[in-house]
Design brief:
The complex is a heterodimer of chains A (about 325) and B (about 450). With about 325 residues, chain A is an alpha/beta fold. Chain A has a five-stranded parallel beta sheet with strand order 7-6-5-8-9. In chain A, strands 2-1-3-4 form a four-stranded parallel beta sheet. In chain A, helix 1 crosses helix 11, helix 2 packs across helix 11 and helix 5 crosses helix 11. Chain A is globular and about 60 Å long. The relative contact order of chain A is 0.15. Chain B is an alpha/beta fold and about 450 residues long. Helix content of chain B is about 30%, strand content about 25%. In chain B, strands 1, 2, 3, 4, 5, 17, 18 and 19 form an eight-stranded mixed beta sheet that branches. In chain B, strands 9-10-11-14-15-16 form a six-stranded parallel beta sheet, sandwiched between helices. In chain B, helix 1 links the parallel strand 6 and strand 7. In chain B, helix 2 packs parallel to helix 3 and helix 7 packs parallel to helix 8. Chain B is globular, with a radius of gyration of 21 Å. The model of chain B has no long low-confidence stretch (mean pLDDT about 95). The chains are: A alpha/beta (about 325), B alpha/beta (about 450).
Chain lengths: ~325, ~450
Amino acid sequence: MATAAPHVYPHRHLLGIEGLSAAEITVLLDRSEEYVDQNRRVDKKQSLLRGRTLINLFFESSTRTRTSFELAGKRLGADVINMSAEASSIRKGETLIDTAMTLNAMHPDALVVRHPHSGAVNLLAQKVDCAVINAGDGSHEHPTQALLDALTIRRRRGRLDGLIVAICGDILHSRVARSNIHLLITMGARVRVVAPPTLVSPLFDRMGVEVHTNMETGLEGVDIVMMLRLQTERMQGSYVPSVREYFHFYGLDYQKLAAAKPDALIMHPGPMNRGVEIDTDVADDIDRSVIREQVEMGVAVRMACLDILTSHLSNDPPADADAAA
Amino acid sequence: MARSFSKGDPGQVAYINARLIDPWDGRDEPGALLTEGSRIADIGPGLFSDGVPEGISTVDCGGHVLAPGLIDMRAFLGEPGFEHKETLATGSEAAAVGGVTTIICLPGTNPVIDDAALVEYIERRAREYAVVRVHPMGALTNGTEGHEMTEMGLLAEAGAVAFTDGDRFLADAQLMRRALSYASGLDLLIVQHLEEAALAGSGCMNEGELALRLGLPGIPIAAEVIALERDLRLVELTGGRYHAACVSAAESVTCLARAKARELPVSAGVAAHHFALNETAVGDYRTFAKTSPPLRAEEDRLAVIQGMRDGTIDVIVSDHSPQDQESKRQPFIQAASGIAGLETMLPLALELYHNGSLPLMRILEMMTAAPARLLGLAVGRLEVGAPADLVVIDLETPWRISEEGLVAKSKNTPFDRRPIQGRALRTVVAGHTVFEFTASA
């Protein structure tokens, strides 16, 4: 794989950003770019994945990511099936491996998986024959989110290299933060993480980022401010004393934003807690906030990932098709 | 192939052409040993120099080491309640393969071994089904729930050799103080799993850069050190005999060394995986490398080995924790902890001899004389009149550990494919050979 030619994404799955090269990331972003244009046309539908089956397997509730993958699959002409933990046999005690084996026997071409536990998607990917896309596993990775963030930045700023990006909020538990750190560092950006000490570890510097615990210094001179969602269960006393105190010190408002570059972009993976991590006016600032654009890029990125990963699949019937029938 | 040691008379057996090593008294010399029935009848360099008399069966040790059978002070055998993971029969067969002739099993069964009748049950079942000796530790608190102490005296009379809540840390400092105090009156040993539970939280591996990258909650070393430091204070208050079950961190070794310098009645064990592996074994969410306490950083591993060398750490244990496939084939945070370690303890310990970390005598002491002294057992020595529990060890032959090759019921090992050197060739319990290695296997 190390000798693969440039302009190729040589992996079977997309489980995380860590370990991908700048060239591989660029392949995914360039392809995504093409789909942005296509998605703005009236006729958005393609038949590239006609006959292919995409299963969205969500062990953790999600509306936007699941919808985004569903749209991406349908626009490429695939048959899309959604399975969520509420409706599935996971609730009946079936193990993750059994679920994987069961779905694998139905010959899907791509599985999009979200799971509350880190590493669960890697585990599942070992047991299936199709392409697997990680749609978020625990606190580990959420690669398509990092790709859509990168695409958003690249389209606005023309590059990633040399930009200063501050990622703010619950870094410790965030898969979005980890994927973004890996991607941005690989692409040559400078990354700062900003959080109260309970929600970040000084060890993040080993990933090549600067660790800040003060928003004003953390945001000083940055090109991009990326806010993260703070989970409700972490707001009241366990990690931070209260919502009010968190917003006071770490919520993004115009006062704190003043430390950033005057044209700094504001990003958020959603769903936002207005008044917790981000002030409503800042979130809706049409000159600065690219939050809705991120959502648009999400569909394009997921189309590109499905396109590239399924292009690796064989068009021959599976070897055991007869035996299985 | 393995036979029970409690039935029949093995008669007289001469073990000749051996390198006799007995850490109990420091013996290391060529010689021979005679067993008669279940006991050692004679030993020495000149024994059988004129040949073995007729009527005595002969075992030629081929110049290999003949040592007291190993004592594993910490193993979980699934009976009762977890027979799908391990039984006294399968666990003891695994032990025999690993050169272990005495297993000290943990009380965290279902039901918990917190009652004298259950101790007797284990002893009776072991006599019937196990191929090596098995003695249980009794629970320290009823149900290992940490609320009230067990009838330690009665459990000890029934055969419990020490007291522990297994893989649960007794969090209640008052109760721990009283348990140590009460046990001191009966000279009983209390064994503690070092993990301050609230601080460990939902942690599932060593806290550090790797856990951070993997997005897994970590267990800080402080969770172990706080538990140990607290207990050492209570030992000081009470004078109770205290044993730290499995030390994993450099700082714990430092704490123990300080306590020993002050002559507190403390001792400590180390699981083979804590000197054979570090946290990088977790790699890409490898649940077979999930242990409690977790595998630590390389500097911790090295400090643990130093502690073994200088005597701060007293015993080597397998911390045998059999887990079925379903318990391990889970997302890392949900997967069960533990390694099936009975068969790999000795060869992993021998790595420390081969790489010059520890003298062979010290390594064997940590699995024979040291646990025998701590637990007051009659085994663990090559002495005339002592039980004939022996192991013949080939120190040199290289081989590879393989998961399929394990005889334990659960085969959860992170050591699959690991090249290794040395193994038990023959395991003898009470004069009976219960395991003999055959090269074709």
